[in-house]
Amino acid sequence: MTLLDFDALAADIKQWGIALGFAAVGICDVDLNTYRADLNAFIEKGFHGEMDYMARNPELRTDATHLLAGALRIISVRLNYLPPNTQLVKQLKNSKKAYISRYAVGGDYHKWMRKRLAKLAKQINDRVGGYGYRALTDSAPLMEKPIAEKAGLGWIGKNTLLLSKEAGSWFFLGELLTTLPLPVDTPVIQDGCQNCQACLKICPTGALVNAKQIDARRCISYLTIEHKTAIPLELRPLIGNRIYGCDDCQLICPWNRYAPATAETHFHARHDFDSAELIDLFSWNENTFLEKTLGSAIRRLGHARWLRNIAVAMGNAVYDEAIITALKQRLDYADIMVKEHIEWALAQQLLKKDKVPIDDPLLKKITAKLNVHY
């Protein structure tokens, strides 16, 4: 019986991964216990907000054998997603335009990556059969960033994202669990953030409470995507025109000066999501929303929260009669939570109009209902 050369196999796996479109491939063991204390502290402080699933079965997040019996190694992959020619800062500074986190302006990555990981597993199995595999793309309770850090793909930065000297942070992560006893890679030991405080200072809502510590309850990505109820009043003005996610801590990160654009057209912007006007997106009915977001991560919001987020952004925009008209046209919206955000946005716009007296009947009615004093 010929003994397997696992070193040579690991090298081949990395080459196969690159050929499949992944930007980098690394391998680590399944022991993530050194990260458990940070996870426990995050949960104990309530930083997970409404994401109750994060507090359930924490042992699953640090032990891959619960997800694949006999798992010995995790193959971690990195996939660049930054679309080319994207005018990030310009879009963010135009308050009448919608800012959508750049990972979501193109196609959803979950199925795409899982298919590529399945192809990688098949190639491995064709070479050495008899071993088990399971592909993951944010689809199981396993800590992706610690895995990638252990596999040598980068380090967890002060903004809690994985950072790479070669690619910044504009990439997705995926994993392939295996029962193969492959050699592991050396983690990135040097912390490339050093004394940099850029991300901590720029966070619009102060969600980055400390280096490598984030309070999701204040994070714009959480508020616009995960949060299912009313956005806290005090945080709405800080959201600006960000209607789906937030990239500020990536935009300011010095390492992202080296981030390459993705070669995958699947992640290029669709339906002008990288340059859309708030009013245009706010006009979509539910059928249009479902049609335009087919195959997009945005669809998980649902039409109601889509309108909620856009309403907040419209309230934050510079004064515009067209925005006021668009908001008034939806004042009878059936969803009470969404309607409240529309009313709030309308109040913000009316207050910006020079000739609207503070005792304006519509303004008084809205502010009284919101129980807000301006």
Please explain how this structure is put together:
The chain has a 4-stranded antiparallel beta sheet with strand order 1-2-7-4, with helices on both faces. A two-stranded parallel sheet has the order 3-10. The model has no long low-confidence stretch (mean pLDDT 91). The N and C termini lie far apart (80 Å). 37% of the residues lie in helices and 11% in strands. Among the domains are: 6-83 and 103-178, no CATH class; 279-374, no CATH class. It is α+β, with helices and mostly antiparallel strands and 374 residues long. It has helices at residues 6-19, 36-44, 59-62, 88-93, 110-127, 144-150, 198-202, 220-226, 236-239, 248-251, 278-282, 286-292, 303-316, 321-328, 336-352, 361-370; strands at residues 24-29, 73-80, 99-100, 133-136, 155-156, 162-163, 171-178, 208-210, 213-214, 242-244. Strand 8 and strand 9 form a beta hairpin. The radius of gyration is 23 Å and the shape is elongated. It contains 16 helices and 10 strands.
